[in-house]
Every structure is written in structure tokens, then in C-alpha cells.
Amino acid sequence: MERKIFWTLRKKVLIGYGLALCLVIAVIIWSLVNIAHLGKASQAILKENYQSILAAENMIYSLERQDSAILLLMLNYPDEAVKQFMENENDFLLWLGRAKDNITISGEEKIIENISNGYSVYLTNFSNLQTIRLSETAQSPQFYHETVLPSFKFVRQECIQLREINQNTMFDASNVANDVSNRAFWSVFTIGSISVVAGLVFSLLLAGIIVRPVHQIIEAAQKISDGDYDVEVKASTRDELGAMAQDFNLMVKKLKAYRNLNLKQILTEKHKSEAVIRSIDDGIIVLNSDFQIEDINPTVSGIFEKKPDEIKGRHLLEITKDENLFNYVKHAFESKTVSTHEEQETNILTINKGNSQQHFLFSATPVSSGEESVISMVLLLRNITRLKELDRLKSEFVMTASHELKTPLTSIGMSISLLKEKTIAKLNPAEIELLNAADEEVQRLKALIKDLLDISKIEAGKMPIEFDSVSIRLIFEKVISILKNQADEKNIELSYTVPDELPAINADINKITWVLTNLISNSLRYTDKGCYIRLSAEHSGSQIYISVADNGAGIPYEYQSRIFDKFVQVKTEKALGGSGLGLFICKEIVRAHGGTIWVESQPGNGSTFTFSVPIAG
């Protein structure tokens, strides 16, 4: 809806600042007028008085020089005297003419007339003095004192009077200019002060007009953010601010209507969500970006045996006291995605309750707002205590069964060996083939039982690890010496490269040797004649990365993600005879050393198995 505004804020601002601008222009014009008056006053002083004063001064000077020339004449220097007198006479008459041309003061014309007449008498007396000196030399001094000197003094006095009258007039003009200057200063100061005060008052009024409704809108917005929709901004003007206030009030009414319309539905959905969360048997924890617990369901209270008020608002580490879980959640916040570890076995939180333990498999789901950063995290704790117990019972059963099977298999193996030694000559080829097959199967079962026993020890945490500072070069040489003959039989190049400055590792030499032996044996199984198997190691940070690379058949992509799981074996003719447990045991041994293991492979272009081991010290 368009609203017609007669007095817009822009018009008000332009009118107000236009008035202030008019005052400034008036001050400027008044200042220019007064400056012009001052200029005229100064020009009048120079034009009307200074020229006459200068003429009077020069006439006095020329007149005195002529009097000096008369004295030279009296001292019998007639040539020099006449020359000096005539030169100064010309100067005197020149300045007298300038004084006549600059008559501007009352009485000045009479004085100049007296000077002109007196100077004519002075010149006549000088001529008479010359005549007397030529005829009667003794009479010339008396004539000078009685006639020439009085005429000199008269002219000189009139020149002095001309100078004084112009000086007095100049002083009067200066006083007038000073008065003009004072009037200009105070008038400009007064008008300027009025302009400043008017501009300041207008600015304050305009600021109040603009800021007052803005403050009202800010206060109203704060109340709305607190949930109070019963606010209204008064529209006291008919400009843009008034229109904004009216639109704001209309917006508040619509928001209030929308809230009333949807509040019931929102509350219903909220209660439904809360009921769903509280009905879930798994523990649910809601965390903020500071890893503080914002909400939980009743299951979490039972897990940690604390009341909800004792858990909410606390840091995650204060409640769980588990660094692995905290690092997992931290990684989920930083990656802004659903955080998953490579191995589910590490995502387990164990809580001791008396003489028993409870195990919870945890996972985290970040909650974000659009493309912004993660604002919260939902942590799910799934109780897997029964599964862990079943896994433990399974491991104990496997261990017990393996021990029970180990003795009869040993007896069967010894019996087959005795038969092969004592009765091999009495058997036909078919019976010999059957006996050899039985021997191979017994050996395969013995190897499988050994692997099962090793896995049981690993899962029970009973595998002994004897850490020591070990040289990588020593381990490589030991492994190659074990498998060199097998590699030579298949015409496969088996080699290694170790940098000279590579530090020693902190490991169990026998366990790491077993890992490398297993990896190389797998490569020998899947690598054809004429290919290569190369061992290498490099240092990065606090870890040594050991690699076993070959250019054999490689691993199909569907097996690469689970190649380190139990009983996983690539389905090829070359895999016959394996138990599928070797890589799983390798993974567990590497994990026991604090490292990780992975594979990079492209079918048809070989494989590279890499694992990390910490450096010594």
C-alpha cells in the first residue's frame, strides 16, 4: 500500500540546511561589504593624504637644500651655489605641482596658494641677493637676514602646515577605518554566532526527529525478540519516519497473528519431538559449540547416574571423562559432517558401575543452520553391553575350542608324519596323494588355530608387546632374509630402501617383523614372475611410515574397504589355503603400537600397504 507523503524527511532536511546556508551566505556577503569598506578607507588614506604628505616632505627638503646653496653663495662659491639652487628649484616646483593636483582637504588649497606665493617672493629675494653681492658685498649678509631668511621660513612653515593638516586627516581616516573594522568584526561575529546557534539548534532538532522513532523501533524490536508482541511505535510525523513506524506496527501485528496462529502447532510438534526423544532407549545428548550439554533424555541420566539438572550446562568431559569421545565430537564440529571413525571398535564409551562395565557405541550428528557453521551436535549413545558380552563369550569359546583342537590336531599330524615315514613304500600313488592332502589340511588347520589363538589374545588384551628402540634397516634385512628364497623361486625382485638419517622406531621387533612378513607373503601370493616387491620407509613428524609395494594383480575395489576385517579373503585361485585373518592381525598389532594401516591399490597395477609406527624417544 503506497502512502502519499507531503512533508518528506528529505524536504525537511533541505529546508533546514537551506536556512542555515542562507545565514552563511549572509555572513559571507556582509563580510565582503565590510572588507570593501575597509579597502576604500585604506585607499582614501593613500590617495588623499599620503601623496600630499610626500609632496610637503620633498618641498621642505628642496627648500632647505636651496638655503644651503645661498650659504655657499655667501662663502664665495657662486657656481656651485647657483647650480644647487636651480636643481632644487625644479624639484620644489615639481612637488608643488603634485600637491596642487591632490587638493582634497578643506583649507589645503589656501596653504598651497601661500606656499606658491611665498616661494615666488623667495625666488625674487634670491635674485636680489645675487645682485647686491655683485655690487655691494658687505650688504649681502644683512639682506639675507632681513629679507631672504624670513621668506624662507614662511615657505617652510607653510609646507610644514601642509604636511600636518594631511597627517591629521590621515589619523582621522585611520580612526574611521578602525571603526569600520570594529563594526565589521562584531557584525560578522554576531551574525556568525547566530548562524552557528541556529545550525546547532536545527541539527539537534533534526537529530531528535530522526533518532527518536529509530530508538522507539529499536526498543520495540528488543521487546519483540523477548516475545512481547504488544508494542506499538507512535507515528508522530507524516514523513518517511512516520511511514516506517506505521509499517513497523503493521509488521508487528502480522507477526503477532502469525505467532498466535502457529504457536499451538509448534508446541504440539515440540512436545511430540520431546516424547519421541524420551521414549528412545538409547542415550541422546545435545551439545552446543562450546561442548556444553544443553539437553538430554532420561536414558542419559540412568547411564551416568545423575539428575538432569546435574548434567545440563556441564562440559562434556566433566560428565563422560573420556578423551576419545571428546576428540570424536570435536572432529565432528570441525568437519561439519556426520563424524565416523574408520573402525567402529574405537567409538565405544566404557562406564564402570561397581564390579561391572557398560559399553556404549557413540555417534554424532551435527546440526547446522543453512550454510553457516555447526550450531549444535546430537550425540547418540547406544548400549552394546550385551553385544560386548556375547563377543567376549565368543572369543572365550574360540580360545577354548582352539586349545581343545590343538592337541588332537598335533596328534593327527604326528600320526600322518609317522605313516609317511614308515609306510610310504607300501602305498599306491592314490593313497600317497590322499595322505599328502591330509597332511596339508592338518597344517592349514594348525595355522588357522594359531591365528584364532592370536586373535583371542589380541581381543583379550593379553598379547605381550615388548617395546624397544629398533632400526628399520635391521627389520627390513631380517624380513628379506626370511622370504628371499621364496622370492627367488618365483623370480620376483625383493628389495628395500631406507634413508640414512631415518630415526629408530619404538616397537616390538618380532611383532613388526611378523606384520611385514605377512604383507610380503600376501604380495608373493598375488604377484607374478618377473615383478617386484619393494619395502620403503620415510619419516614424517613423530611417525615412521613403512610401505610394502608391488606391481602384482592388485585388489578389487569391492574388497579394499574391508580387507582388514576378519575372514575377508580376495576370491581368486591364488587365495586358496589362507585363513583370511592375517591382515586383521596385522591391523591389531599396528594399533597396539599406536599406529594405523591402510592400502592403496588399483586392480591390475599392484598394491601398496602402508602402516605407521612411532619413532623412538
Topology at a glance:
Blueprint: H1 9-74, H2 78-101, H3 108-135, H4 140-225, H5 240-279, E1 283-288, E2 293-296, H6 298-304, H7 308-311, H8 316-320, H9 323-335, E3 348-353, E4 356-368, E5 374-383, H10 385-422, H11 429-459, E6 468-470, H12 472-489, E7 493-497, E8 505-507, H13 509-526, E9 532-540, E10 543-550, H14 557-560, H15 582-592, E11 597-601, E12 607-614
Parallel strand pairs: 7-9
Antiparallel strand pairs: 1-2, 1-5, 3-4, 4-5, 6-8, 9-10, 10-12, 11-12
Helix pairs in contact: 1-2, 1-4, 3-4, 4-5, 10-11, 11-15, 12-13, 13-15
What's this model, at a glance?
The protein has 617 residues and is of the alpha+beta class. The chain is built from 15 helices and twelve strands.
